[in-house]
Amino acid sequence: MQSRNSPRPSSTLAAIAAAALGLIACTAPQPAEPQTPTTLTIGWAADLLTLDPPNESGTAGIAVLHNVYETLVSYDFTAGTLKGKLATEWEVSDDGRVYTFQLAENATFANGQPVTAEDVLFSFQRVVDWPEAIQGSQIRPALAEATMTSPDDKTVQIALAAPNASFLPSLAGTAASIISKSQVLEAAGEDPEAQRKWLNENTAGSGPYQVTEWVPNSYVTLGASKSWWGGTPTYESVEIRSLQESSQQQAALQQGDINVAMDLLPQQVTSLTGDFEVLEGVDLSTYYLSLNLAFPPFDVPKVREAIKWAIDYDNIINGLLAGKAARAGGVIAEGLPGFDASLADDYSYDPEKAKALLKEAGYANGFSFDLYYVTGDSIRGLGVPLSTLAEKIQSDLGDVGIKVNVVAQDLSTLFTSYRAAKLPALIWYFGSTIPDPDQIVSAHGDWNTQATTRVSFNDRAITEKILRARVLTDPDERAAIYKEIGERLSEIGPYVFMFRPIPAVVATPDVSGFTLTPIWSFNLS
Amino acid sequence: MLVAQMVLRRVLLMIPILFGVTLVTFLLAQVIPADPAVALAGNTATDEQVQAIRERLGLDQPIWVQYVNYLERLLAGDLGTSIYSRRPVAGEIALYLPATIELATAAIIVALVIGCTLGVLAAVYRGRFLDHVGRLFAIFGASMPVFWLGLLLVLIFYTVLGWFPGGGRFDRSVPQPWPWTGFLVLDNLLQLNGPAFIDALAHLALPAITLGIMGAGTIARVTRASMLEVLSQEYIRAAKAKGLTRRRVLVVHGVRNALLPTVTIAGLVYGSLLGGAVLTESIFSWPGLGRYAVDAMFRQDFPALMAVVMVIAIAYAVVNLIVDIAYLFLNPTLRR
Q1: B278 and A CB contact within 8 Å
Q2: Contact: B169, A218; criterion CB under 8 Å
Q3: Using one digit for the tens of pLDDT, what is the confidence trace for B295-308?
Q4: Cβ of residue B146 closer than 8 Å to a chain A Cβ
Q5: Closest C-alpha among A444, A435, A491 to residue A466
Q6: CB distance A131–B52 less than 8 Å?
Q7: Cα–Cα separations (whole angstroms), residue A334 to A77, A330, A430, A470, A519
Q8: A426, A372 in Cβ contact below 8 A?
Q9: Where would you tag: which of A345, A442, B122, B336 has the fewest CB atoms within 10 A of its CB?
């Protein structure tokens, strides 16, 4: 698939044709509509690691897989509800354990074969049988203990061992992509290792596009599935070009070499506004300071509260991030059940109050701590270096008498220490990879998870609520509990929530059929 | 014959060197307090998942067992599989290395042409206008941040003038050659693929000039100093006294002798270019070894890291060998 030999239409011919069309358009009286190009070219700094759905956890890979494969269900972020995709309808038994899915009658894979219950079972069984596949952890625990059957060709029944309300939303993640069993067997045979090797570099999905060529660190090309059961894809092909520098993306966009620039800095976005279309997306990741309660004085609630009042959030958002972020007061992002906008108002910049709280806590003269962050990392979608955020926090906390030593470390080293609960404080972010709050509140409040041991946080009340919400079948009741959890996490949790980035993507005006989405970056259909 | 002997001796010497390199890299990788399994497992992984990955990668075994296993596989010609991409490291190196060699070679040619010319001219016209120009250029070349120069060239020649492409190795609308060697310029030349040859050269131009100017500064300074020293030697005076033309004195007696240090420094520059020019690769989206090496380091992708370090070590050894062979030709006294 990596042969670079297929002859391509000459660009000169295309230019002549375009010029000729332009002449015709000039003679015609009607106003000229911007023509949608046949190839969409996207410049992106992110790279793919693999094309195998349960094993890809990177942003670019997830975006590609989301447009190549389809899942049983999908999520409507505007309505905040699940919607059908390959499954047109589903039923949940009263005890919340048995899920029965009806597959779309006309759904087919790119190779023309119908999507059947057997493909679903094959895809899910792969995830169960492959414990190290990173992204598979979204659905593996539930599926591993479930009984999966196919009463008929178009019906799938999954009986979970215990009720689990986040199971259905987790099926919208790319790890739960439905792969064509027959295509994989034909190409790679029965051996699972051979299948993984093949799916690492090839796709066998039912989405609007399939990967036709992939040269790592250079580009990946998606070709439209002519027979896509969901309609006709907007473009004949979509090329994602690896462009590492934001300046290079800006230049390529202005030269007309790419249609979409994914990683422009806020000031570049501003300078291009007017001539280009700016698409604003939603990122579910929350940036926060993570404080380890095992390191005094973070165990003193008033000290944590003082830090929450000492940070100049408005200045960070409007100055440092040029307004391309939203104040976040809690861990649950907008669009997910349990989101509470009012949490953003709980803490604001009040250094006097912070000093008073420190005095009450017995730290009138302040204290000092090490604040870690990832070397060379920048804020998702905005390109602003994390180091500037660290320095801003250092200066804000310095104003109330807290001395911050900023320590930069590479991700692997930092994360190893973080997991081992050896870091007193760090700048961290957490983004949901499934459209459900269970994943993110568990990682911040359920003391059974590894994530809460990193900050030595052990709150029985929050844990119990999380466990209860997980088995609730009534959506409203569930959302209400998540709201309570979110509130309590913001109040007593060892986290100082700061903001969620608002990623901005700049496109040429002729681009259509390209929309931004949380979790999966973009939709091409 | 002498050359053949030297090559053989060097190749044999490379075996203990490479062995040492693997050992040192291996030990250094152990010193870093980062667990690749943790990084690979991701944010929400449980301890059991991390342990499962550790076992799959063999990281749960004692260090010496890991090292012996690694050597065994290496001797069997297996560089291992990348922890992250799950592709064979040998294949990945084969994908990125030609791009790096191509860029480094083009850059060293640019550096040598500019550096030697300026260095010789500066020495010959010492204290005059050309000397000042050369020195200014040398300071400019050696002290300028590479990303700044790269971005400047992109801005001028891509954004404003539109003469050169802004990045990558080739234009996807031009039919590409069969990847015989992986060096695009060479492949196109061998297959007489005219348009693609020009396209490949055009893509190579800006990154090669960026890196070349950086190297040219150093080479110019060394060449100037060495040329000045040579010009003050007795044999130059003797040559002049013999009545040889100024041109013959400078080229045959001067430049030829002055080039020895230049060759050494050019070898070092070339070696460092092969080690990966990360920033330049990044600015021009050049799919080379530099970024692969940095990614491997940050991700603790051990098999990839070991392979990259070994490739760079081999590259240095080979370049040094070429430098020494060049010495033999430039300096006949060494041939005795």
Answers
A1: no
A2: yes
A3: 888 888 888 988 99
A4: no
A5: A444
A6: yes
A7: 9, 10, 14, 19, 13
A8: yes
A9: B336
